[in-house]
Every structure is written in C-alpha cells, then in structure tokens.
Please model this.
Amino acid sequence: MAVSEAVVRAVGLEKRYGLRTVLRDVSFELESGGALVVTGPNGAGKSTLLRLIGGLAAPSRGLLEIGIERRRVGFLGHEPLVYRELTALENLDLYGRLYGVPERRERIGMLLGRFGLWEARRQRISSYSRGMTQRLALCRALLHEPDLVVLDEPHASLDDDGLALLDAELGTLAAAGKTLVVATHDPARVAALATGSIALGHA
Amino acid sequence: MSITRPSLSALAAFAVALAAASVLMTFFVAPEDADQGLSQKIFYVHVPIALTAYACFGLGAWKALRLLLTRGERYDLESYTGIHQGTIFGALTLVTGSIWAKASWGVWWTWSSNQLVLFLVLFLFYCAYFMLRFSIEPGPQRERISAVYALFGVALIPVSFFAIRLASDFIHPTVFTRDGPQMTGSMFAAFCTSWAAITLLAYVMYRTELAGKRTDVNLRDLREALAR
Amino acid sequence: MTAYLGDVAALARKDLRLELRARDTLPAMALFVVATLVVFHFALPGGASEDAAYGLLWVALVFTALLGLGRAWAPESEAGALDGLVLATSDRSAIWLGKALATLAFLLAAEIVALPAFALFFAPLDGPALLGVLLASVGICAVGSLVSAMAAAARGREVLLPLLFLPLAIPLVVGGVGSSISPEPGAYLAFLGLYDAVFAILSWAAFEYVVTE
Model:
C-alpha cells in the first residue's frame, strides 16, 4: 500500500461505567500496517481500550473510527472465548463457519499445526493447560485472516515454546502488512515491531 | 427551559387546584350511584389512576425505544422514571381497586375484575424491572437491557389482557360482574376533571423525579471533576 | 439467508453436542418434571377435579422449563464465548435463534417423558392439549432464551430468571390450560400462536441490544 491511511482513529475517547471512568481523553491514530503498543499498570484501562477497538464496546464520549469491517478484526482478550467442553477442532470449526472462512478445514489444520496443537486437536479445552488454551485462543483470533489484530496481553500464560511461536507469528503478521494493537506488560518484547505506543495511566 | 413553558411549581400548584376541584365535583356534582352508593365514587379515582399507569408504562417504553434507536444519553433516565411512575400508579390502582372491591362486594380481592388481575400481572412484571436493573452494573449494557425489558412490558399489556379475558371466559367464570357506568353529563365532567388532575399530577411527579435524578448525576460528575 | 440459517444450525448443533457430552441438563429436567408430578399427587386433595390436574401440568412444565433456561447460557459464560459469538456472527439474532431452538429441543425431550407420565398419573391428553403444549413450548423457549440472556448479564441470575420469566409465562399457562380443558380449544390455540408470533419476533429483534453495548 503506497499511502498509509489511518485504520483506527481515536479522538478524546472516554469510557464510563456508571460512576467509574475507566478511560479518559485517549487519542491516537494507527495507520494501516502499523503496530500500536498499549502499556500501563493494572486497572489503567488497557483491556477496556482494546475492547473498544475490537468492537465489543462503544465509547461513552469521543470519536472512534475503525476503517475496517467489524468481522475483519481479530480479537484476543483475557478470556479465550471458547467452549471448554468442545474440542479444539469443534471450536475452530464453529468459528470458521460463523466467520465464513473459505477452505475452513485446511486453515484450521494449518493454524493448529503452527501453534503446536495438532496432536491435541481432538481433546476438549477443559483438558488443556493454560498455555495451550492461550494458543488456541490465538488460533481463534487469527482464524479468519483479520486485517486488524487486537491482542490483550497475548504473552500471558505461554511457556517458552509458546512465546517463541507468538513472537514469530507477530513478526509474520507485521511483515504481511497487518495492523496490530497489542496490550502488554512487557513492551520490550514487542518493541521491534511497534510503530507507536500509548501509555495509559489511571483515569 | 424556555420562558413560555410553565414552571414546574406553577404546574404543581395547578395540579393541586385541579385535584381539589375534582374532589368537589366527585362528591357534589356527580350523582350518587343507585346500587353502590358512596363507594362508587372510588371509580373517579381508580380508573384515571389506571389509565395514568398505562400512560406511564407507554412513556417508559417510548423512551426505551428512543434509547435503543438513537443511543441518546437522556433516554435511560427518562425511561426509568416513566416506568417508576407507572409502577407507583399501578400499585395505587391495585389499592384503590381493592378498596372498591371491599366496598362493593365485601372482598378485598377478586379475580373477576379483569383490569385488577391485569394490573397484578403487570405489577409483578415491572417490579422485576427494578430487580433486573439494580442487579446489573451501571453502564450501557444496563441501559439497553432495561430498555428491552420496558418494551416487552408494553407488548405484554395487550397479550395479558387477552389472556385474562380468555381465562375468565372459561377457566374462571365470572362470579361478580360490574358494568361500566353509563356516564351522564355531570358524571362525565367529574370523571374528566379527575382524570386531568391525576394525569397532571403524574406529569409533575415525573418531571420532579427526573429533575432529581439528573441533579444527582450532575452532582456526581462535578464531584469527580473536582477530585481530579 | 442460507448463511444465516447455516449459522443458526451450527449454533444449535453446538448446544446439542454440548448437552450430549455433559448429559446434565436433560436428565435433570426429565427427573424434575416427574418428581413434580408426584408431588402434585400428594398436594391435590382427594376430591379435586380432573381440570385441576391439567392446571398443575402447566405449572410443572413452566418450572421444568425454568430449570433448563437457567443453564441455557452457561456454556457461553464459562470462558467468555458469548463475546466470541458476538464478534463472529454477522447477525447476532442468529445466536438467539440457535439457542432457542436447542432449548426447545431439550424442553420437548423432557415433555416426551412428562406427558406420558401425566397421562398415567392423572388424566388423558387429547390432540388440542398436545398442540397447546407444543405451541406453548415454542413461546417459552423464545422468550425464555432472551430473558435468560438478560439474567446472565446480572448478579444473582439464578434468582432473577424466575422473576423475569414468570409474568411473561402467565399468558402461556392460560393458553395451555384452556386448550387442555375447554370444549372449544380453538381460541386458546390461536392465542398461543399469537403469543408465539409477537414474542418471537420481539425477542429476535431485541437480542442484538441485549448482548452488545
């Protein structure tokens, strides 16, 4: 893409839940193919901001423009967003259908293989470790080849192998021109890809 | 508030005056009922209160619809206040209806008054509204869920009405019947005055409660702004 | 349209698969309804009319349905899957429809146990009565799935669900009992159809607002 347009534009974002103001006056622009790193202490509103960008919540005040269709956004939250009593294959097959992923089986197989879950594909998620669940959640988030990938502390719960896989995947996504938003406690880890960053304090 | 709109206190004063007028009319202008005697006078209070309750529920549902369609901030409080007023008037409908039943037939409750039974069902429904609302964290989700529930209430009103009619047709054949009074001129005048008074009273209460709630919200916002 | 129905089917299948694995809700509902009918036998005095028994059938059905509805959204709550569905579906009402259909399947399965038990313990059920049960079940699942989703967003959801559901279920009970005991069940069956149409459409349209901000 010759000219980078803003994929996400936020001006004066505010998010209130009743009496609590979780986000106050947040503004940024994220261009296509860029990577925004969101940092801040616990409770500063990182997850809330990511939910806004991911389309799970709407701001109380301010402007949030997302130049991508809702279902072309991939989201990884604090919870894996899966069904514990279904297998990895069944979970991804369901999401694949809902997202309308073409050649679903191949894509699922490819992702499970890439994240080291192929052997465990027929096991229920309730039998997975936290690291495996996190990797499955990543598969779910990336299943439909989203243009904008929103990741809330993706490194959490992963062991060394998992971390290596994630870092490789982030690199691949960035190289492919995907737009990223990553909330993390460890900004150094993603410093290489970051094109911008936001530090949230307590509102 | 523009200058041409009457102030709330002026409206309140007028409502009280109208209420006083309607009491006078009820007792001195409207003729006494041949069968029921003095107790029939409750009709002049009971029916307008019931009509006002319906109007409040309707208002609450209308504001709820506006909230869902436009996401305007003000509609949540307006819808809530409308439902709240409706519930108050609904409770009053049950009370006045009960008093009338006691005076007319000697029982504090009867299942044969379709209107009374309908209000009982609605009262249960709208009480659950408050339980629902206050079990959810304040925020946009609470507003939307409350709004959807308010809309369901308005759909329930006619459906329940039919259900109760059907039930009394066969399942519970009516023991007591009460014909709606054929209203003569002076009765009609007294009724209308009473209805106007109660509607105005409800409007004043609605505006007052809404103003109170808005003030609470503004106060909290101010406190928060100062605290930063 | 076919994509929408495909989504609905996939979602309903998911619920059926989950229940087949866990096998907790359906047996509980079946056992509950039979136990309730037995309690009713002891609760009904000896000279009670047959009609009273039909009334109690409907009480049993409503409370059995509540049992199922209380657990309807549990799989979505466990690991936040509801958010996942909200993100993935193009039309969120498909989530409601899939859930309502699955819940209906469970309720009908419980009724396959309940109705013969009722006929055995109390009184026979004729065509209109059975049709009434079917129509009312549709209404119960349509409204119940929506209201259960509302309760799932709240604290104290187990207590809240009956409070939200019962007033809405009253017309269904009237329709159901009427179709069982009235010599002219047509009006009651038509009424049940009306209820189903009104509240299914309302639930279908409103679900989006219940699960999104």
User: Anything to note?
Assistant: Residues 83-145 of chain A form one domain. The longest helix of chain A spans residues 160-175. The CA atoms of residues 130 and 157 of chain A lie 6 Å apart.
